[in-house]
Structures are given as C-alpha cells and as structure tokens.
Write a structure and sequence with these properties.
- By secondary structure, the chain is α+β, with helices and mostly antiparallel strands.
- It folds into two domains: 3-74, 434 Repressor (Amino-terminal Domain) (Orthogonal Bundle); 116-189, Sandwich (Jelly Rolls), CATH 2.60.120.10.
- 19% of the residues lie in helices and 28% in strands.
- The chain is globular.
Length: 193
Amino acid sequence: MEHSDLVLDSKENTVGADIRALRKSRDIRLIQLAAELGRSTGWLSQIERGQTEPAISDLRNIATYFDMPLSFFFRNEQAAEGEQGFIVRKSTRGTLGSRMSGLVEELLSPHLSADFEMLRSEFEGGAKSDWINARPTQEGGYIIKGRLNLWVNDKKFELFEGDSFQFQNEKYRWENPTETTTIAFWVVSPSIY
C-alpha cells in the first residue's frame, strides 16, 4: 500500500500502524527490524497490520530501537470512544525529546500513518541543534512565542513571534538565542516520527 493510499479506519489507528510508519519513515525493511528484535518477519507483519498486539516487553524493545519513550505507543489509548484517530487532547499528547536535549516536542497528530505530522515544539533558552541532514520531507512552522534562529543550508534566518517558514529537502539547524523558551508549531510531510 502506498503512503497516499492509506485509509484512516480502526485498523490504521493501532500501535502496529505507528510501528509501520516509524519503520518506513526511516527506510528500515520489515525483515531488518524483525531481525533486530529477534522476532520473525511474519510476527512483525501481523503487528503492523493490527492482527495481533505486541507484548509490553516487545513494545519496550521497539521503543528503544526507535529511541522513543514507551508511552508514545499508548497516547491514543486514553482517547474517548469515537475520537481515536481523529482527536488528540492536550492531556494525551505523546512527548518526544527532553529538557536536557533542549527540545521537547509533543505530537499533535493522532497517528503516524498520515501524509503529514504536526508537532508542538518547545526550544529551551540557549538550546541549539547540530546540523540535521537533508531528508525527503517538506517542513514548515510558525513561531507561537519567542524567537528562533534557523539555518537552511548556509542561509540564516531570525524568526520572531508570528513568523513562519517552510523548506524542502534541505539540511538545517536551529538555535534559541534567548534565555526563555520558544514555542513553535511544526509540520512535517511525510511523517518522520
């Protein structure tokens, strides 16, 4: 199934669909991930298609492999009936990153099997990233609060509250040049988490 052919139904809104989206976003073959986990390709295929659920120990191994918190896979479990796959309440957002790394992101999208993902990004005061290599994505954002310096290739942009940006297939890095937290809304297509 091609990424754009995905239909949002109850089978797509599973832990398996998130695992498949993570694997595909990183160009990892099914057989490769199964081998890393010490499991069969058939087992992983059934997980990804929502035919069976992984044990907590397997899910922990998968989270570790993708450098994700285990709680990421349970963010939709708390959604009200009828809202799963459509609505993400503030109290149930999946959190990625840490204050120690200088960037904490909350996944605003209800699942990873869509054509894009939405993130709420908090850049700690003084935090900066290394260069992020060009990837086959389109990315854009809007500065909700604060200030952010953004380098796209060799061009530096100073962004302030209310400014927005967009780039495609470019290496980039960012820096919060202030002592206060900067908050941005970030969109990535296709999904990368």
